[in-house]
Protein: CpaF family protein
Amino acid sequence: MDHGLVKRLRQEVGDRLAQQRRLDAANGLQPMSGEDERQFARALIGQVLEEFARGEITSGRRPPNAEEEEALAAGVHAALFGVGRLQPLLEDPEIENIDVNGCDRVFIGYADGREVMGEPVAESDEELVELIQILAAYSGLSSRPFDTANPQLDLRLPDGSRLSAIMDVTVRPALSIRRARLGKVFLADLVGNGTFSQEIGLFFRAAVLARKNIMIAGATNAGKTTLLRAVANEIPAHERLITVERALELGLDAFPELHPNCVAFEQRLPNSEGQGAITMAELVRRSLRMNPSRVIVGEVLGDEIVTMLNAMTQGNDGSLSTIHANSSVEVFNRIATYAIQSDERLPVEATHMLIAGAIDFVVFIEKRNEYSSGGRLRRYVSSVREVTGVDGRVLSSEVFALGSAGYAVPAAPISCVDELAQYGYDPSAGGW
Structure:
């Protein structure tokens, strides 16, 4: 097979596919599901191959025969939707993390806590960079550069996994993939695997239905996004959701049976001339003009925090978000740090007043290796903190705290318990 030709045809098909994504997004249409996109790509491949064959005939050259055309179509499809030698790793349901430090230094983390070294994923570092560039060109809503001028990359792979890559500031190109093993996940699933108790599951459901604003905090890879998905899946199907993310990851729009009216926004990076960027803060502001029932911000990492908190205090109750933090109480200082770096330059006191008016509950999730259980990696909710007011700083009460059972248990009265009771929260009842 002519790999140069496959590469050229793949680029043509990928450009048309990306153009269709942009048109759908501009027209407010529901994004294609993964399978629909693959079917559409097959039709595009047929069109491009037909155009190529006509061009060959016009130029007096022999067009591909049926067998060659079928091989070209398969090669283009694999180049678009496959990830080369990474594909078998992404298809293994037990793998949680893949770290690549150069093409032949591959470290695999399993759900049971095992860490093993894997086979090379490319013949050379140059081939590894090219693979990442292909993924960057055709994943997400817009092409993302990965080169000397743009040595950092974050994106969501077609299977929902999260990829982060870097080059030139490291001796060899490196990437990390965090697997989305639980795509369609519900609170009952997390109760079943010991992430939290049934009572906290009932609390989460009631808090969502009562339209409480919830911030989920934790360290890297603690399970924040999975918990956010499970909580969001309790939102009634008739509500219009708008998600705002740096790189598409939540994938709530991929399940129309749960969220038929869902629009996913993705931050756009500037082009090579430094133009065309659309920031997270701008997207949050834009989302408020599109009639959302709720706005969900995938991960707060910067100045979008002020815009989001303002949105929460302007009638967009029931919002959800995640943030990196080391404890539930540290979340307030982390938000204040982001806010003081924003264009508004909010002082700490003003930020704390904004937090108190915007956030109802902070949930902290963490992970640990249970060596007594063979090194199994376990994730669990260890704290739920209710924001109760402000007095120079945010006042809060830890309503669920880590107990001897290994996850959070009731620790203090919930001030809005009567409101939550209207939506089924009854600690003594139990059952789903």
Observations:
- The chain has a mean pLDDT of 86.
